[in-house]
Amino acid sequence: MHQDSDSNSSCKTSRDLFVRATKSIPGGVNSPARAFRAVGGNPIFIQSGKGPYLYDVDGNKYIDFIGAWGPLILGHRYPAVIEALEVMLTQGTSFGTPTELEVEMAELICKMVPSLDSVRMVNSGTEATMSAIRLARGFTGRDLIVKFIGCYHGHVDSLLVKAGSGIATLGISDSAGVPKSFSETTIPLQFNSIDALEKCFAEQGERIAAVILEPVAGNMGCVLPHKGYLEAVRSITHQHGSLLVFDEVMTGFRLSSGGAQKLFNIQPDLTTLGKVIGAGLPIGAYGGRRDIMEKVAPLGPVYQAGTLSGNPLAVAGGLAMLRSLNGNQAIYQQLDELGAQLEKGLLKSANETGIPITINRIGSMMTVFFNKGPVTDFDQANSSNTECFGAFFRGMLNHGIYLPCSQFEAAFISGAMQSEDISQTVDAAHSVFQDIVKKGYTSN
Ligand code: PMP
């Protein structure tokens, strides 16, 4: 482990805290994605973050490749965000009334994300997707929703069908507690298969309110759309009068300043956004075409509300970060260069040590699959050697590299990283790959 004197370590260890946590929190964690069940060992308790680094309560420093599961695209304690939060703290923490900052935030989001005419703030990605599909149903008067196997859209009852992220990691096929009648309104299809989508629409097109997808999946590990796939989804939904919902909770403001839709030049009807727009504070949003958004209360009959929606602290922090990203082509270029350096270095090390891996990467989002590849859908992602991934994860952690604790999550690079951080990560991986070979693990 990397002991670091900057860390404000206390006499409490992660191990002690975890034992304590299990007595008052289910599984000791407030979100299953934080549990280390799939990779072995116990979760690390973090004390603080600075730039690209995390510091745990045990006195170790890590290069952080989870970035709070996406939002910290500019790293921990980004100065403009901290300053905005400090100013807001002198004014209040919540008012339950409209504020000027919310208007500025909505205007900026609509300016940056091409398909948005209007946007409603909520408190999480889950709320955003739940509200977007209710709106799609209210707008079209239809009930069915198409989703893709391995995509995760938060823990909305009807969207937990064949979901990725923690649910795939724990090997739970569908969550208990969801009435059959709810999951029956969801049609799960294979990601990247135009045939499956065409067939489904040919049979039930008139009953489908919306297709929801992660335009680049991050929750079965990073899986890119085939060339032409998103265009086909757009045209099929349009043809049948169904709405296309891009869930950009992960890709929004990460793949470009206008998200995946700007990068791939596709106009969805609705878009969901999450963590990124709060710079790490709890927030989410959904938005889209004006005629659809006008169906939301108080303008229209689709009800959706929230006491803390547009919370001033979350909005202040998020707005500061979005302003730093707006028109900042250089940051996306830097993220891509760091990503390319990491991808190249890891592939070289894996080749030299004889471990077959597949790396899926787009900009600053990537996954190392312990699998010969290609990985273009959930079945392929799921054929990875997760034992090998677990050994990789634990080895990297011991070298001070904090990766997502699941084969079915994307790692994120932050703009606070330098080329040296990537070199250190590649060196660590080289030695971990060698250990994996010595221990006799093999990729599938
Ligand atoms: N959609 C996607 C694409 C996500 O990645 C996530 C969370 N990782 C969600 C929705 C749910 O967001 P939250 O955890 O904020 O509810």
Description:
With 444 residues, this protein is α/β, with parallel strands linked by helices. The chain has 15 helices and 14 strands. 38% of the residues lie in helices and 14% in strands. Helix 7 runs parallel beside helix 8 and helix 14 crosses helix 15 (419-438). The longest helix is centred in the last third of the chain and has 25 residues, at 329-353. 51% of the residues are buried. Bound molecules: 4'-deoxy-4'-aminopyridoxal-5'-phosphate.
SSE layout:
Blueprint: H1 14-24, E1 46-50, E2 53-56, E3 61-64, H2 79-89, H3 100-112, E4 118-122, H4 125-140, E5 144-148, H5 166-169, H6 180-183, E6 186-189, H7 194-204, E7 208-213, H8 229-239, E8 243-247, H9 259-264, E9 270-273, E10 284-288, H10 290-293, H11 312-325, H12 329-353, E11 358-362, E12 365-369, H13 378-382, H14 386-398, E13 401-402, E14 411-412, H15 419-438
The protein binds 4'-deoxy-4'-aminopyridoxal-5'-phosphate.
